[in-house]
TrEMBL record:
This is 37S ribosomal protein S25, mitochondrial. It is found in: Mitochondrion. Component of the mitochondrial small ribosomal subunit. PANTHER family: 37S RIBOSOMAL PROTEIN S25, MITOCHONDRIAL (PTHR37799), SMALL RIBOSOMAL SUBUNIT PROTEIN MS23 (PTHR37799:SF1). It comes from Staphylotrichum tortipilum.
Length: 240
């Protein structure tokens, strides 16, 4: 016979509260565990059956064998948004955009509602990034009723134009600053070339030493060669 179902986990709050009140140590009465308040607001479920998770999308068609597996029935469904596929396409074509720093700070959590993507890809208070292309493309597809490829080409061309303008502004600002005496140090290319030259000089020094060592070994090998005796007189002289 089984012992039946255990409900001690559902009464964990009452048990912990009783231990705190009846504790002989006064310091423990005022020191509640960190999880106690969470259990008070979100108590353990008293339903003995597992609820069926809400379906966020159309469930895929499973085979009979897969449909019989009950452990898959209660798994949370995968949440899919229209922007997911657009992000994958953009960052697959522009992997270096992932290396740019991202600004994830928001003011009140509703900053996305203040964006008006009908005015273009450049939005006030938002740094130009791959997300700008994704949101602009999505707006062109849903509102302007453009195809996915056409909307992607239009948003991508706007993105390229703004990136080119940023590069031109950055280069002109650097030239103006240098004209007034500013010094920015070495560029990234100059630093990388310096490191490459240092590694090449180190290898050249090592290769020169190896060539000299091999030349010395080769010369020493010829110096230690002794001609073998061939005639009878030479053999008798060698035996004596």
């Amino acid at each position: 016979m089984g012992s039946g179902r255990q409900f001690r986990a559902a009464r964990v709050y009452e048990a912990a509260q009783s231990l705190l009140v009846n504790s002989p140590h006064k310091s423990m009465q005022n020191r509640a565990p960190a999880w106690l308040s969470a259990v008070v607001h979100i108590p353990p479920s008293e339903i003995l059956t597992r609820p069926y998770p809400p379906q966020n999308s159309t469930p895929p068609q499973l085979s009979r064998r897969a449909a019989r597996r009950g452990h898959r029935l209660f798994r949370p469904t995968k949440m899919v948004y229209p922007e997911d596929e657009l992000r994958r396409d953009f960052f697959r074509d522009h992997p270096w955009e992932l290396a740019r720093p991202k600004l994830v700070l928001e003011l009140d959590g509703t900053d996305a509602r203040d964006r008006d993507w009908s005015k273009g890809i450049q939005q006030e208070g938002m740094r130009l990034s791959g997300e700008s292309v994704v949101q602009r493309q999505l707006w062109l597809m849903e509102v302007a009723h453009m195809s996915k490829d056409a909307a992607y080409d239009k948003a991508r061309k706007e993105f390229y134009a703004l990136r080119q303008r940023e590069d031109i502004e950055r280069r002109i600002a650097s030239e103006e600053a240098r004209m007034y005496g500013a010094y920015f140090g070495q560029s990234n290319i100059q630093v990388s070339m310096g490191l490459e030259d240092a590694v090449f000089d180190k290898w050249k020094h090592w290769a020169t030493g190896e060539i000299e060592r091999l030349a010395v070994e080769k010369a020493a090998a010829y110096d230690n060669v002794v001609d073998a005796p061939t005639s009878d007189e030479d053999l008798q002289a060698a035996a004596q």
